Amino acid sequence: MGQSDLNWWERRATVVALTLFAMVPLLWPTIAPLVDLPGHMGRYRVQLDGDGSAIRHFYNFQWALIGNLGVDLLIVPMAKIFGLEFGVKLIVMAIPALTVAGMLWIAREVHGRIPPTALFALPLAYGHPFLFGFVNFSLSMAFALLAFGLWLRLARLGRQKLRAAVFLLIAPLIWVTHTFGWGMLCVLAFSAELIRQHDRGVGWFRAFFHAGIQCLSLAPPILLMILWRSGHVTGQTADWFHWARKWEWFQKTLRDRWQWFDEASVAVLCALFVAAIGSRRLEVSRNLGATALFLLVVFICLPRIVFGSAYADMRLTPYLLAIPIIGIRLRPRATTGFANALAIAGLVFFGVRIASNTVSFAIASAGFDRALTALNYVPENARLVSFSGHDCRDLWSTNRMEHLGAIAIVRKRAYSNDQWDMAGAQLLTTNKPDALYFKADPSQVVTAGPCRNRWRPLNWSLRNLPRDAFDYVWLMDPPVFDPVLTKGMTLIWQAGSDRLYRIDDRTMRHAPAVLQATP
Fold first, then answer.
1. pLDDT at residue 517 is higher than 70
2. Is the pLDDT of residue 519 over 90?
3. pLDDT tens, residue by residue, 162-179
């Protein structure tokens, strides 16, 4: 089919433009305002500096083959070419673009052409997991979507043997990026093969068997998984079948800053899918419909914590919505005018969501820039404890500064108390026993009063801080606190409520606080 025979939304130029347009929200911010990303950037600095760096007095870093290495590996060449911060920016910008490209490729392969309804799925590239800063996960899912497009294309061309050989290489690469991406690819490929076999007249039992045979080329990462999990790994798997949480995650699929708008956007996607089921002009592909059912089962069965990684089930929600939306197509009776109207509506929906993400990211980036001026007053290799204010309630607009303290590692090679310390799930562990509770995440998250979680009130943290273990205290958007607790410290920088103190008197001790959780 030539380009002249395609509708405007299917043409190569439009597909390229949509893919590039997905990068727009990330163009302005120096550091993408994704919750966990600054923490990951701190780890990259320790990784890149090597054993001879002074920062290794604070952290241990040991390479290992784990299913969570995507950006950790990519940043090695990117940092040499562009520097750490800009290298991370380019990689992160590529993730939503690759996700959009993967969605459109799948739509093209499943339907033979890109249906106008596929445009509605594109904002899901900025789903809640990506905004949370799960960059290895999001990158692996983008790779999985692209790989599934290739899987379908090779099947359409009758190149099953070539496909088996190619995916013997692709599957381990996606697993190394992040385990979830490989799992997603397995679900996509198996469900597609199952329906393809059944459509050829094969019974369901034999179709299951043949689909499994076709997917054997995706199996080698199982050996890598066994090797990984048999090592010194502390991450647990827990919190199964938490129905209220799962419903909450689904509602928060497009969570960013404005709750009414984000929830309304999810409602639009759900309404589109429901309308397609009962429409005379739309239908849902059996291939992607079956895939959506498989993903729903996976979402229901996944616990909240897998191998120490939290929000495991939440991470699936954008794809749980994207696959059925991509699966919608026009029936033969649909008119050209109807198709054009859908395409325009989908394009507007994508554009409005990207605009909202762009504004939201610009607001968060301004907060980053303001807070990070504190680092101008922090010397190299300082011992820094940071506290980022948080509400006991789970507010819709997430706290983007939760791990911003790690930029002190990036720019000053300082110690920061926000790194994750979990053997086997991360390559980095902390080496600062004198910091006590304040050596790792979540000690950097503070509240106004006691909460029913692991966070501590700022007053408690200031009172119990081992001053001889740190040189500076950095407060970012802190709650109200007792100024007496900063006695023996010198305020050397302030911008709004953000403050940086130098610890002068290391002998100060306060009576231990008694914590009582708020209801």
1. no
2. no
3. 999 999 999 999 999 999
Residue 319 CA to residue 317 CA, distance in Å, equals 5
pLDDT of 33-75, one tens digit each? 999 999 999 999 999 998 888 898 999 999 999 999 999 999 9
Q: What does the alpha-carbon distance between residue 217 and residue 174 come to, in Å, rounded to a whole number? A: 13
pLDDT for residue 1 is more than 60:
no
| CA dist., res. 257 & res. 473, Å (int) | 28
pLDDT of res. 487: 95
Alpha helices in 279-335 (DSSP H): 286-301, 317-326
For residues 305 and 237, the answer to whether their CB atoms sit within 8 Å is yes
Q: How far apart are CA 111 and CA 94, in angstroms?
A: 26
**DSSP state for residue 402 in the 8-state scheme:** T
Q: How many CA atoms lie within 13 A of 253 on its CB side?
A: 25
Helix (H) or strand (E) holding 236: none
**Domain locations along the chain:** 3-24+73-166+256-361, 31-63+378-519
d(CA 267, CA 274): 10
The answer to whether the Cα torsion of 26, 32, 35, 41 is positive or negative is positive
Cα 89 to chain centroid, rounded:
14
